UniProtKB/TrEMBL annotation:
This is Uncharacterized protein YjbI, contains pentapeptide repeats. It comes from Desulfopila aestuarii DSM 18488. InterPro entries: 5peptide_repeat (IPR001646), PA_immunity-related (IPR052949). Pfam families: Pentapeptide, Pentapeptide_4. PANTHER family: ANTIBIOTIC RESISTANCE PROTEIN MCBG (PTHR42999), PENTAPEPTIDE REPEAT-CONTAINING PROTEIN (PTHR42999:SF1).
Amino acid sequence: MISYESVTYSQPSSTLDTTCRLIQHHTINEEMIIEDEIYKDIDFTQERLQAGEYENCKFINCDFSNSDISGIKFIECEFQGCNLSMVSMNQTVFNNVKFIDTKMLGLHFENCNNLMLSVGFYECTLNHSSFYRVDLRNTVFDKTKLVDADFTESDLSKSVLKDCDFSNATFAHTNLEKTNFTSSYNYIIDPEHNRVRKAKFDYPGVLGLLAQYDIEVI
C-alpha cells in the first residue's frame, strides 16, 4: 500500500519557520518505509526522527547529537556534514551507508544490528567510538580521526584505512589481515596479539608495530 503523509519539521532558523513536505511512503507490517528523501538543516535533538526504514535518503547538516535512533533502518543512505555524537543506536541498521564530514563522537557500533552493517567513513571524526567485536570487513575509513577508538576483537580484514589518525586507538585480538594502513598514522599495533598477515603499512607509520619492543630505530 502506498500512502502520503504531511510531516512538519522545525527548521533551525531565527524565525523558527516550519516547512511542510509531502513524503511518499509504504507501510509494510506497520513499518513505514521512506524513500528518496533529502533532510537538510534539521535539528533532530528537538524532535526525534520518525521510526521506520529510510531507503536512499540523504541527511545534510542535520543534528542528531545525544538523540535516540535505536531500531531505525538506514538503507543506501548518506549523512553529510551531520552531528551524530553520543546517539543511542541499539539495533539500528546501517546498510550500505556513507558518512561524509560527519561528527560521530563516543558511538557504540557494537550496539547496532551487525548482521546488516555496511558503512564507509570519509573525513569524519570518530574519536572515543567503540567497534568492539564488530565485523568491519572491506570498510573504508578515509581521512578520518579515530583518536581513542576501540577495535578490540573487531574484524577489519581487507579494509582500507587511508590518511587516518589512530592516536591512542586500541587494537587487541583484532583481525587486520590484508588491511591497508597506507598513509595512516599514530597507530600502535602489537603483531603478537593481532592478526596482521599481508597487511600493508608504510613508513614511518609501520614503526607503530615496534612500539612494544622499546627499541630505537635509527
